[in-house]
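Section 3.1: Structural characterization of target chains.
Under the original work plan, the team committed to producing a structural model for every single-chain target entering the pipeline before any wet-lab resources were allocated. The record below documents one such target. The sequence was received from the expression subgroup and is listed exactly as submitted; it comprises 177 residues.
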Amino acid sequence: NETTRVVLGGVIGAGMVLGGLAISRRGYRLYGEIVAGGGFVAMYFSTYAAFNFYGLVSQPVAFGLMVAITAGAAFVSDRERSQGLAFVAVLGGFLTPFLVGRNEDAQVVLLTYDAILVAGTMFLAQRRQWPIVNLASYALTFLTFGAWAARYYTPDKYVTTEFFLTLFCGMFAYMLR
C-alpha cells in the first residue's frame, strides 16, 4: 500500500546514506558520496510522495521532514568534508518550499526560510572553504525570489520585499569580504 511504499523509500534512502558512507570509508570516496547523495534524494522523494501523492502527512510534517533531511545532508557533508553532499543539502533545502508548498503567497515565511538557508550555507562554506557553495546559494536565492515575485509581488508588498532584498544583499556582500 501507499504507506509501505513511502516508508520503504525512506528506509532505503537512509540505508543508501549509511551504505554510501561505509563505501566512502573503504577508499571509494566519490562513489560513496554519490550513493549517500542518492539516499538523501530518495528520502526527499519519499516525503514528497507521502504529502503530494498519497496525503499521508500534513504540510507542516512534510516540511519538517524535508528540513530534517536538509539538515542531515548538511551535517554529513560537513563531517565527511564532502562538497558534493553540501550541494545536495543546499539544493534540497531551496527546493523544499516548492515541493511541499501550496499555491499560496507566503512571502515572509518563504523569504525568512531562505535567509536561514543562506546563513547556514555561509557558515558551512566558510568553515570548509567552499566558496562555490555560496555561489549555488546565491543562484538559488535569486531563482526563489524571482519565482515568488513573478507570481505574487504587488506594490503593497514593497516594504517587506525591500527588507528581504536588503537582507539578502547584505548577506551576499558579507560573503565577498
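The chain has a mean pLDDT of 95.
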